[in-house]
Amino acid sequence: MVERVYLAKPRGFCAGVVMAIQTVERAAEENPGDLVVYHQIVHNETVVRRLERERGVRFVEDLGEIETTEERPGTIVFSAHGVAPEVRRQAARLGLAQIDATCPLVTKVHSEARRYAAMGYTILLIGDSADHQEVKGTLGEAPEHTILVAVHTQVGKDPRLADPRTVEVPDPEKVLVLTQTTLSVDDTDATIAILKKRFPKLVTPARSDLCYATKNRQDAVRRLAPKVDLFLVLSSRHSSNGMRLFELAGKLTRAVRIDTPEDLEEAWFERVRNVGITSAASTPEDLVTGTLAWIRERWPEVEVIEEGEWEQIRFRKPRPKRPEEVLAELG
Ligand code: SF4
Question: Which atom of ligand 1 is least distant from the CA of 103?
Fold first, then answer.
């Protein structure tokens, strides 16, 4: 019988996700039935399906899928994960107006990649997959200067990512490490420590590339895990920060990942008294509320405990740019 539910705090939407979704909603109002978003705006199926259904937004993975005409050149929004400059250039050449909803914390990593590549550094970019949109975007800033590196616990999972223990660079005096923003804090620290040992002159960013939302959600899971018998992690499979939450919770207690409350199974709750709930930075809060309602329906006396602080960070929404403006910026 479930007696207590601990809600992790913070959980759910981060400032980057709020900004990205609101950007699409506003752009959809201004371009009714005619808005294209490159890649899932955030990695959550529910969010994407709602934008398709309720706002008429179209999501594409390839610019070749877009038909433009001179009378209706159209507008494209780039997702929170960021894109390579080449994608922005191609979209501009198609005549599309662009709204770049890249999270500013990802943009910061792009700027560092550009800055150090211009100084002749090799960039070791730690990521969880060469296919992750954020990794592709950062890599695209300086592909000839960048080597993708796996987190030390994930070596071999994606053969395109080098092993931090054996990766070689042309000049060990000029090496910078950057990371995807949504990795495991512990594993990233350990991976950077391995690289630092191998390349003592390794430059690390003044502030970690791992974003505040990733760190805070992992900290909240770490705090709650010792109190719970079962941790429910609401996250899409493609959400990097959500999957890292699920892995962390699974290391510390029993954890189950669900996309929505419809996935819940009563059998999981046998002999469970204390349940933890957390959600990825791209998971809408109503899915948490729905999960709680499902539990309350079965155990109406359940006590709900929520400790911790919400974040107070907000990001400004981007403005649309004309194609010629984008081409001038890219040079
Ligand atoms: S998870 Fe972090 S990097 Fe990604 S959108 Fe949110 S704040 Fe930005």
Answer: 8
